[in-house]
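INFO  loader      accepted 1 record
INFO  loader      residues=219
INFO  predictor   begin
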Amino acid sequence: LVEDLIAALKEAESSRSVVITGFGKVFSAGIDVRLVQHASLENLPIFLERFDHLLKQLLSYPRPLIAACNGHAIGAGAVLLLACDHRIGLSNGGIGVNGIHIGLCFPTGAVEIIRAAAGIGGASEILLQGRRYLGDERVHLGLLHELEASEALLSRALSRAEECGQVDLEVYAALKVRLRSDALERIDQFGFADREQFVKKLQSKETHERLAEALKKLG
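INFO  predictor   done
INFO  writer      dumping tokens
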């Protein structure tokens, strides 16, 4: 999925704006913890490096990114949502990251995307509390910009994308990089340490127990 997103985003740069949405009642449930739990210690760092690459691509994406959030956005799925410049959601559907309850630390890229969307205060709340936010609190916290009825969600997102795509895209891309240059530098600075910490935590007995508990709740 990460490689597909990297390729699709690169291809979509020929457009003036991009809309990201999910299927059914879920925008994205994030990384499959079942796969993470059983990933080999050789392959996991490779995946994490490519995930970092995707996060950097999202932070500096040179076109307006519009999210049509059609339902739940959890964990890395919430990060994908928050990487979008304008986020439209339904009245239902939870948004949140619960890494702190599982014992897996979000990488710097994910933290920077959340900080860019919700500010330092909002990012602290979202990451350190690990809650799933519902209803209007998603707008108040900066997770969504507006709410829309399900039947009009995609058309509203496409309309907003058309509006956003009318600007000078060269200026848009330059401003986006300048706004996020510090974040991009921090990803490069801490990326290796992030991956090392993630793998180390994944090997711990306590994390395995928390993951098993999370999988039980998933059914």
